[in-house]
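Page 42, continued from yesterday. The earlier attempt failed because a stray header line got pasted into the input along with the sequence. Redoing it now with the clean sequence only.
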Amino acid sequence: MKRRDAFKATAITTGGLLLNLNANATNHQKMKGTFKHSVSRWCYNSVPLEELCRVVADYGMHSIELTGPEEWEVMKKYGLTCAIGWDKYPDGVSLDNFFTNPDNHAALLEYYRALIPKAVKAGVKNLIAIAGQRQGRTDYTNLINCKNGLKPVMKMAEDQGITISMEYLNSKVDHPDHQFDNMEWGVALCEMVDSSNFKILYDIYHAQIMEGDVVATIRKYSDYISHYHTAGVPGRHEIDETQELNYRFIMKAIKDTGYTGFIGQEFVPTGKTEGEKLAALKAAVAICDV
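This time it went through. Structure tokens are written below.
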């Protein structure tokens, strides 16, 4: 399942899930503390939210991300935050049709006008943004379009201490025609928006598919990055030895930049049971705990 499909689905209730955990679990997995650890909700939509909260807290993690205001209230009960938030997009707006299309700017301004105060109230510091498809426009035209759409949003974000992070997505496999599919374009947009509250969500899976050279890119552009996503290549599955990326080495490179923020696991687990899928999450966090 791709994220665009998962965003359209509601969480599936699996009442028979037996994990032998409880909300007051105290046997948290001990972390080294370099990073804060998060997981994308859509990757575990088959697990009821409160059950996932219990597991994530038990693993010593800090966040379930790509969640919205109603979910944030549930997560608080388990001591969890949302590393990077969103809410249901306005009609006509999607991962493919976002800031590159000027027709969406008014709706997106109202979207963030409503979401930013909710994030402030919940203590959520980072909200996601998407570029959108090229749709026949030039890269430069879409830079201008995104800048124009983001500028009024950033004024609100700056006033409220919120970071807006635009995600790097691949245009080869998952998001055909997507505009922000190379790091130089994203950095150029950051320079044009000219706000310390506008950053890049560097998705390592997407970047590997498009450009590779992940560690060198992180070292060069770390000042522009506010958040990281993981997933295995090829296939977007577990980040273990079954795929081509050495995540332990990548995490050490991120650590060397001085980054201490969130690492968001965004892989689609391949396990047949919920227990196997959640065990894969625990293993991934251990790999990234450097």
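Notes: The chain has one domain: 26-288.
Reminder to self: strip header lines before submitting.
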